[in-house]
Amino acid sequence: MEYISNCPICNNSNFENTLNAKDTLVSQEEFSIVKCENCGFRFTNPRPNELEIGKYYESEDYDSHSENSSLFGQLYSLLRARNIDYKLNVIRNYKPLRGKIFDYGCGVGAFLKKAEKMDFVITGYEPNAKANKIASENGVNIVDFKEIKIDYRKYFDVITLWHVLEHVHDLNGVVSILNKCLKEDGIMVVAVPNIDSYDALIYSNKWAGLDVPRHLYHFNRNSIESFFNNYGLKTIGVHPLKMDSYYISLLSEGKSIFKYPKAIINGFISNFRAQKTFNYSSLIYILQKEKQ
Predict the structure, then answer these.
(1) Which pLDDT value is given to residue 73?
(2) Domain total in the chain
């Protein structure tokens, strides 16, 4: 385990413990989530280091790294397909002329394959060996991140991180590299769970959006915007992922079919309340470099 001594956003070293959550997917271990006393950013601390974290993904139920044929896996695939169409429509509002797209943490490559059909030139990076293999077999151009760092400066029109940023150990290092690979008029598209959502409030430490220890950081709108401001990236748009409230509520209920009605009701209430607050369960942030 490693202990984070300084806030990744403001570098403050004073934290308060906000809650403890259990890893119900793999280890059944309990992890602490702390809050920076200066900027309010919340993150898992202590956490597994980069050598240890792999074992916490070793589950057939980790949907984004597999092509699960179970009932829940099929439901996830259906939701993913609908979400992909929505995501590409959001991107098209900002980049109607397509271009070169890089998906950091591309999983099995479903998003990139659909983007390719819309005439994007696709490139992906996926650190998980199982998902990497599936993506490659599906025809996705998978590159090593070292190649991205060296060979792709100011190359991409669009860089996407779909529910990935919360998993990245070297948060500042990775975003710094990605920012250098983005064209001056390019966009970075980041989707993360929103810890200020209503479903996060009602499920508390059982909220599946916490997903400890795989989720190292727990963002809200303020922390995302503060973090990317450090890299000269400003928010030019925010969009909801409304289906996530239902999916995360289902996970929070424990995938029991008998609890589906309750999860659906909670997902609906979360989306309904978010119409006023815009605190949807997950949010997509469209970021662009500030003009010099």
Answers:
(1) 61
(2) 1
